[in-house]
Write a structure and sequence with these properties.
alpha/beta; 4-stranded antiparallel β-sheet; Rossmann fold; 12 helices; about 325 residues
């Protein structure tokens, strides 16, 4: 196996909040191989977007890393100086944010912003940068890239803005593209188009993709492997087909059971996982999912769950999972 292009090793991160701290990431480890598409799934509030932001070192000022490393092509990005980290973003790793409207300045045209996004591209004239931006807008499916470059962000539709955000992220040909809920604000038809576009771009440019989403259908369509998060931890990791056909962690089973696409009979009630996420200002000593888990025993409530290797590329954080 080749060396991972991106790896997170035993990462713990907390947010300072009034009266204490919120343990948003707890001993998270995962890796992404060159050209691989990794999905990160889980309920809202489980730490998915925080993990994505940490991968590009864009967590808030109140965030504090308490343990672990993040390596991009073998370099620990958290040990780099501020100037080196700024050069890394866009060139080596880039991000597509959940809301494309807030990803762009409202007072500059799309063309001027796409040119400025190439500031780390040395030895290239502004004219050539505009040509590169125009070509990338055409590649992501905007039928009139010249018109799009002359417009302000609010003059584009939601789908056009999301395509422009993907174009902006790919302008520097990064090794890793991180997409945080890239289809949340889109209708079903546009969502399908963006998924198809990401699949095509991954094949064209060979970049690894990390996609954060609560939409299990997006993961099934796009990803090679999936990491399921709960309460700031990766509770299961597996190839996507194996996870969908044979989920091992009780939370993964419950999450998949809530997918509306799996409902075969007419019902007046949508399935839901009972209970709620634990308070991460004081994480429980045992398994965070134990209060909601039908398989939980006394040891689940008092002892941290072990990481159990199930098979090649498969692991789960659970007392009740057999190897």
């Amino acid at each position: 196996m080749t060396n991972p292009v991106l790896s997170v090793e035993n990462l713990s991160l907390r947010y300072r909040v009034p009266g204490g701290s919120l343990q948003v990431l707890r001993d998270v480890s995962l890796s992404v191989q060159p050209g691989e598409v990794l999905g990160i799934a889980g309920e809202s509030g489980c730490g998915k977007s925080t993990l994505a932001a940490a991968m590009i070192d864009l967590t808030g000022a109140n965030a504090e890393r308490t343990a672990g490393t993040i390596r991009l092509s073998g370099r620990d990005i958290l040990s780099l100086g501020q100037a080196d980290r700024r050069r890394m973003r866009g060139r080596d790793v880039a991000m597509v944010f959940q809301d494309p409207m807030t990803a762009f300045s409202p007072v500059l045209t799309m063309g001027s912003q796409l040119v400025d996004f190439q500031c780390n591209l040395d030895g290239v004239s502004r004219r050539e940068k505009r040509n590169r931006a125009r070509a990338m807008l055409a590649r992501v499916g905007l039928s009139d890239p010249d018109l799009a470059m002359a417009r302000f962000p609010h003059e584009l539709s939601g789908g056009m803005r999301q395509r422009a955000a993907i174009a902006a992220a790919l302008l520097m040909r990064p090794a890793v593209l991180i997409a945080d809920e890239p289809t949340t604000a889109l209708d079903v038809t546009m969502e399908a188009q963006i998924i198809h576009l990401l699949r095509e771009l991954q094949a064209d440019y060979g970049c690894a993709i990390v996609i954060v989403t609560h939409h299990l259908g997006v993961i099934a369509e796009l990803c090679d492997r999936v990491a399921v998060m709960y309460a700031g931890q990766v509770v299961e990791e597996a190839p996507v087909d194996a996870l969908y056909h044979d989920p091992r962690h009780p939370y993964t089973r419950a999450l998949l059971a809530c997918d509306p696409a799996r409902i075969e009979e007419h019902t007046g009630r949508l399935p839901a996982i009972g209970g709620r996420l634990p308070d991460l200002t004081a994480p429980p000593p045992g398994c965070a999912f134990a209060p909601r888990c039908p398989l939980a025993s006394d040891r689940c409530r008092t002892l941290p769950p072990p990481r159990v290797t199930i098979g090649p590329g498969r692991a789960a954080l659970c007392h009740e999972v057999a190897p």
